[in-house]
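Running this now, will post back.
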Amino acid sequence: MVLSEIACEDDVIKMKDFGGTSQELCVDMQGSQHKWRGFFFLVFPMMPLGSLLKLLLKANSVQEILSNETRRYLCASFVRNLSQLTNHGLAHGDMKPDNIVLTQDENGVIGTALIDLGSAGARHLPVSWSVGTINYEAPEAYPYYPGSRLAHKAKPFCPKKMDVFNVGTTIFTTLF
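Update: finished.
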């Protein structure tokens, strides 16, 4: 099982619990009722340092300076995280600052970990769909978005190439 192999890596958030149910779940979301029958859940530890996006927005809003060295260190850390996925034959599929959380080890060293593997899949198999975030997507994914005028030109593309583009845009966002 690939996920159990990845869970042994140091920079991967350890799952605390998981489960599922066939019972109905009713949730009131902004005044409208939503019902689900049968669902699966995963429980992960709380990440009090938040996401990379949260850190970048905070630094920009209060004119704090994140040193270039810190920004490069964070980039190297999340590239290493993605490398761990690719070593196991997976592509993330939705790499962006909001899907990178900040971690801290027992010595206080800050690192990163990837979350939201809902779009992850085999990195070498061509796909003909996209569920990533459009601002970080490779151009070849655009025809797959609802209402795209390019839908007639859609061709299968390789998820590992998408991850390369996603990580490039995420590095750019982090550095600049």
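The chain is about 30% helix and 20% strand. More later if anyone needs it.
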